Amino acid sequence: MPVDVSVTTEIARPRAEVAALCCDPDQDTSWYVNIKEVTWLSDKPARVGTQVARVAEFMGKRIAYTYVIDELVSGERLVMRAVDSPFPMKTTYTWEDCEGGTRMVLRNEGSPEGFFGSLMAPLMAMQMRSATTKDLAKLKRLLEG
Fold it and tell me: What is the pTM (predicted TM-score) of this model?
């Protein structure tokens, strides 16, 4: 069973500023609640093909995985895919101007593998929505001061 979770927020900062922070993996631990470690596996700065290893805590478990950037349109869109992961997932950030700042959408989609993964998909979706909502709230607080 696929998981597809999108969360939207509006941040009272210019789109370029919001996107710049989100496209810098060195900033991930400052706004992602569950991300504990980030290690560059490619040269900086982030671009298509960049690989970044992450360690997260999710649903009470430590999860290590690598993200590969598949698409990066400055100030508009970032698409990453998890590899070497127990949960193959694609994460997409989009940014657009809105009255007073930037509208950001963070979308996570994937398919848990195996029979157990299929059974866990609804719970995973709920947990992902909760975590992503917290992440965007933390990002908003960080950028708005």
Answer: 0.90
